[in-house]
Every structure is written in structure tokens, then in C-alpha cells.
Amino acid sequence: MDAQLFDISYLNLFTGLFVVVLLAGMLVRFWLAGRQMRHVAWRREHVPEAFAGVISQAAHQKAAAYTIAKNQFDLWSSVYSAAILIGWTLLGGLGLLNYTLLERIEHPMWQQLSLLAVFFLINGLLELPLGWFQTFRLEERFGFNKSTIGLWLGDIVKGTVMAAVIGLPLAALFLWLMQEAGSLWWLWAWAIWVVFNLLLMVIFPTFIAPLFNKFKPLEDGELAQRVQQLMQRCGFNAKGLFVMDGSKRSAHANAYFTGLGHSKRVVFFDTLLARLQPDEVEAVLAHELGHFHFRHIAKRLIAMFALSLAAFALLGWLYNQVWFYTGLGVVPNMMSPNAALALILFMLVTPVFGYFLSPLMAQLSRKHEFEADAYAVRQTGNKALPDALLKLYEDNASTLTPDPLYVKWYYSHPPASERLARMAQAA
Ligand SMILES: [Zn+2]
């Protein structure tokens, strides 16, 4: 059997498709990143006219340097990750791991669960250098990193334990369905996936996020008063506003909305509150409330669930296709179930094909951002939010001159120039 693991005669048409799409994805990545870096570098010397007098030359140049450094890092990590992917699949890594566990563990369910667990552990370890470099080299170099090695390692340990506690029972349930629930197992699995995600959205803000950060209600004062009035005007429960100690890990400032039903909340990073004036914080909050007003969470969920239904149906079919395994360099088991193998291969391969869907998701997200901006302008006027955004762009060293095509493919938020222009129109 050892010899078969690396036998290239198993490779097939699907291998060809996989390699072509992987290479095409890499080419698009390099092409887009190259465009973005050139676009930013060529405009490094002059602050765009629309921002002259507001954004300093030094801040503009820092944003350019940061954007270029981030893109270089993204390219290196995508090459590194692609190498790992090839190692798992075509070079036989997953086949070898599967074979090793088959030899040592008899019970099929334990064998498959351990395959999943060991795979994720090894894969996580392989990805570790990327995370380290990003935090302690890239972010550090631009003064954004506030984390320590201890805190960083602690996060990884906590995250791994959480993933095991939540993920292993779920994985066991999926494996069981794949073997026992008949040809429509994927429909059941999808239903469980939907319920699981909804549940996660309810428990994440109250039980999981507090394991990593401290959340405090906004303290009294002028700001709290303004904020409460705004929330009343918008018909939002005032209990749902929290301040998070984001400064513990990073100097980046942000705000986000999360949760479902009673657990829904808006979270401000302490770094954001430290930087913005009360009226600007109010405008940022109004933007987040805009997301609730237009039910963006629900819309995003529906899009995600529809996509995952298609993905589960596809997996349901691939699960029984021998070429799917052999084409990816793995010989399926003859005497025991292949559910875990199918799950892992599917998770490895989906992002390769899914990369070409990212412009669609980004487009939807940018549309929602415009809507939330318009809502904020209606609630708080057309000065406070642009002022707040400019400060945030400057502090986060976000470039003001991105490449339009790069924006279309990746940006979940429209670039500053477009957002400000729209808000000025709305006045
Ligand atoms: Zn938003």
C-alpha cells in the first residue's frame, strides 16, 4: 500500500482541473497585488486633492508603505499555503497520515475523528509562522502590534481548545450522518450546519468573545447620553453597546456589530473611543445601527446558507466519487469509511475554487456599507461620519489610492474617496 500512496497513475482529469484553477488563482493574486502595489507606489508622493490639508504627507506615505508591505506578505503567504496544500494532496501527505492512523486505530469512528484532529493540528502548526510574522514583524514594524508572545501563544491555546470542544462533537455528528443517514445525508448535515451557525452567533458575543477580550458597557457622560438618544431614535436596545479592550493586541481602531436576537450588540474598540470626538463616535454607531436597520446580518446569513447548501450538495456527490480522492493524491480506504477524508479534501479544495467567488461577496458587502453610511448621514448629518472615517483611515494606515480593480475583487468596504463622495452627495 505504501507504494500506492505516491503512485502518480492515480492522478486524473480532476488533478488537472485542480492544478489549473490553483495556478490561475495564484496568477490573479499576483496580478492584482502587483497592480495594487504599483498604483499605491506611484501615488505615494502626493496626497490626493480630495484629502489635501486633512491627511498629512507623512500619514499618506506611511499608508503606502504599509499597503505595499501587507501585499508582499499576502503573496508570500499564499505561495506558502499553496505549497502546504500540494504537500497534503498531490505529494501524498494526507494519504500518508490516513494510512498511519488506519494502521494504529481500529475503531472506524475514532480513526476518522483522529484523522480530522491530527490534520488540523499539523495544519495549524504549519500556518503558525505566518501568524507570527504578521503580528511580530509586519504589524510591529508599523507600530500597530501591542501583543506579546505570551498573549499571542495564549490566544492560540485558547482558540485550539475552543475549536476542539465545539468542533469535535460537530465533526463526529457529521461523520455519523455521512455513514448512516443515506444518500441525503448532506441535507441533514446542512440543516445542522445552519442551526450550529445560528447558535454560534447567539453564544459568540456572550460566551466566546469574552474569553479573549474584556467587554464593558459604555461609561456615563456626554458620550453615553448622546449614544442613548441615538439608539432610542433608531429603536435599538441600549443595552447592546459595549467597549472592548482592543488596545491589548493592536493599535488598529474599529467598531463592529455582532450577534442575533437578544445577543445582538455593537462593539467599539477602546482605541476608537480614544481617538474620536463624541459626535464622531455617534456617527460610527449610527453606521453600525444602519447595518441592523437594513437587516444586513440576516441578508449575509441567507447568502451564506444558500452557498453552503450548494457546497453540501456538492460534497454529498463527491463523497462517492473515487476520482475525487485519487485525483487529489489520496487512495480511499477499502475496508473503512472515507467520510473524514472527504471532509478534509473538500475543505482543502473549496477555497481554491471559491477564490473566484470573492468579488461577488465583496460587492455585496460594499453595497451594504454604502447603505449603512447613508443611514448614518440621515441620523447624524454629513460631517461627523466623514470626519471619523478620515481619522480611522489615517490611524489604520489605509491607503487612499487603491487600485480600482483590486478594490472590486477584495474590498469589503468601499475606498475612502467613494464613501466620502457619496456622503457629500447625500447632503
Ligand atoms: Zn459597516
Condensed summary:
With 427 residues, this protein is mainly alpha-helical.
N-to-C order of helices and strands: HHHHHHHEHEEEHHHHHHHHH
Describe the strand arrangement of the main beta sheet, using strand numbers.
1-2-4-3
How many helices in DSSP terms?
17
Biggest β-sheet, characterized? 4 strands, mixed
Quickly give the structural class. mainly alpha
Q: How confident is the prediction overall: mean pLDDT? A: 91
Beginning-to-end CA distance, first to last residue:
71 Å
How much of the residues is beta strand, in percent?
under 5%
Bound small molecules, by name, code or SMILES, are:
zinc ion
Helical residue percent band: over 70%
Q: Which segments are poorly predicted (pLDDT under 50) over 5 or more consecutive residues? A: none
Total DSSP E strands: 4
GO molecular function: metal ion binding; metalloendopeptidase activity
Active site: 288, 373
Main location: endoplasmic reticulum
Family: Belongs to the peptidase M48 family.
Account of the 3D structure:
The structure is a single chain. With 427 residues, the protein is mainly α. It has a domain at 3-210 and 299-351. Helix content is 70%, strand content 4%. It is built from 17 helices and 4 strands. It has helices spanning 2-5, 13-42, 57-88, 93-104, 108-141, 149-180, 185-208, 222-234, 270-275, 278-293, 296-318, 322-327, 339-354, 358-380, 384-395, 404-410, 416-426; strands at residues 215-217, 241-244, 255-258, 265-269. The protein has a 4-stranded mixed beta sheet with strand order 1-2-4-3. Helix 6 (149-180) packs antiparallel against helix 7. The longest helix has 34 residues, at 108-141. The chain is globular and about 70 Å long. The mean pLDDT is 91. It binds zinc ion. Zinc ion binds at residues 287, 291, 369, 372. The site of zinc ion has 4 residues, from helix 10 and helix 14.
